[in-house]
Design goal:
The C terminus is likely disordered. The chain has a 6-stranded parallel beta sheet with strand order 3-2-1-4-5-6, sandwiched between helices. The longest helix has 14 residues. With about 210 residues, the protein is of the alpha/beta class. The protein contains 9 helices and 6 strands, in the order E-H-E-H-E-H-H-E-H-E-H-H-E-H-H. Helix 5 links the parallel strand 4 and strand 5. The radius of gyration is 17 Å and the shape is globular. It has one domain: Rossmann fold. The termini are far apart. Helix 2 runs antiparallel to helix 9. Bound molecules: adenosine-5'-triphosphate (ATP). Adenosine-5'-triphosphate (ATP) binds next to helix 1, strand 4 and helix 8.
Amino acid sequence: MKKKKLGILGGTFDPVHNGHIYSAQAVYEQLQPEKILFIPAFIAPHKVGQDFAPAADRYNMTVLATQDYPYFEVSDMELRRSGISYTLDTVKELQKIYPEYELYFLIGADTIPQLQTWHKIDELLQLVTFVAAKRPGYRQVLDRACSSLGVIAREKIVLVDTPEYEVSSTDIRQKIKSGASLQGLVPEPVEQYIREHRLYLFTDEGHSYAED
Ligand code: ATP
């Protein structure tokens, strides 16, 4: 019998934005998993040493961003585990919770070239299929990744033809710093949460997002 599919979207979500939501929605429509779990990282391995908004805020914003999608769910498992959030640990935990599911790990295509640096990537490639959503400028990356990760990558990394959404959390943080509008870039309740909690404001740079 064919196993049910579980989508997993790991990220820092600092903050979550419409690129995450729309690409997850496109993957949902094409892959047809039972649901997609958004899992905010406590500390993403490739972002060790960087500053983030508090974990609780990143989690709350992710809950707000996904609340209208019954097949999106947010898990705090990496936040509860704390420390560096290795995907392999998360996947092993998920295998215990969802033994009857095939696991599909969603990534942006920009992440494909970095996969070879992921903690125990060879083991991880045995356990999940990576589903890469297109991001601007990343059409050629899959072939290159396949040559560095070996033949298994051909089977275990699939590139889905999602529309490309030109937005990143870095852009959002910069826009907030410069006082630019976030309209259309993040879900409305997330924009409101950022304002209310005065997130991503760096007062020493003289800009204030919440100046109104
Ligand atoms: P930052 O700019 O802070 O590095 P980010 O926008 O890349 O953040 P993350 O939370 O680090 O967001 O991303 C989580 C996952 O979502 C990654 O696999 C990333 O490639 C993917 N992703 C982020 N933005 C998009 C987008 N616009 N389209 C498709 N995938 C995306």
